Amino acid sequence: MRMVSRTPYVRSVPSSAPSTPGSATDVGPGYRDRLHWQRYQAFFPGALRLSVDNAPDEHWWRWRGLKVHVDRVDRPDAPAKVIALHGVGTYGRMLGPYGRLPALADLEYLAPDLPGFGLTGAPLLGAKYSDWVACVRDLVECERARDSRPVVLLGVSTGGRLAYDVAATTRVDGVIATCLADPSRDEVRRVLAARPEMARWSSLLSLVREPLSAARIPMHWLVNIAAVSNQSQYANLVWADELAGGCWISLRFARSCLASGPAVPPESFTETPLLLAHPDEDRWTPPLLSEGFFDRIAGPTRAAALRGAGHLPVEESGLADLDRAVRDFLDEFDLQ
């Protein structure tokens, strides 16, 4: 068994550093009061479903003037930690069922709501994609300061690109991604957009100056939320969720997401083991878009197709494939 050294929570930190998480009850209402997430559970197999009784503990983490909501399942004796990263149009609590997969159920689990989504607010002028990268990078460093256990990033949807960018800029021990599409490429923007012709408009966003870039518009005006799941009822729930696909996003955030290329070219991503587990019936970001990027990665990689699964996998066949692929990946790189 891997020996684990632990350090206590830091009670005071420099103002430039992230704080350690505190109790959600000290800050305000959490997901015990915002219950839309419970409606998603019916689409997952029974063993993976969350309820009020088995949901992760809620914590708040003060980061750069924001109060970042973090779901957490503490397992002090777990050999490793997994940090689940949502993408555009979702939030941390929506990923809870993936944390209950047998391959991950014995690991310590965290899932932040990234700036502008879920219960985490955004800066006055709106978040940028670089804020997401910095937020997760600082969270990783905060967890490393607590103890020496390996940290694995699980990126779902555009959270896969985020996990890659974080791993390229700070040390983590593994990346699991369901999508690696690079939205700075024209063919990716065409499938991400609410309508393909809108991809041509993305260059116009660069002409929007401050403070006009703080203007907010409904997310479904820009991105193809309807393709988030092959289960139409699930996609409708995401569309109607004001914390997810029904939220409003700033032009600043949309511009930064579309304009940001990978933190490093895949040919320079050489250190961190990476698993691409892409749904094979993804109607939003087809597997070829991820595979073209994945095939260029120079470091250690594995790939798996999630049979019968859509962009956010809820189908039993795809979840079984994901569980198997994650277990094999963690075993191969001694991360569990």
UniProtKB/TrEMBL annotation:
Compositionally biased residues, Low complexity: 12-25
Keyword Hydrolase: yes
Name of one Pfam family that matches: Abhydrolase_6
Keyword annotations from UniProtKB, A to Z: Hydrolase
Molecular function GO terms recorded: hydrolase activity
Region of interest: Disordered: 1-28
SUPFAM superfamilies the record matches: alpha/beta-Hydrolases (SSF53474)
Domain AB hydrolase-1: 82-317
Name used for this protein in its record: Alpha/beta fold hydrolase
Organism: Saccharopolyspora rhizosphaerae
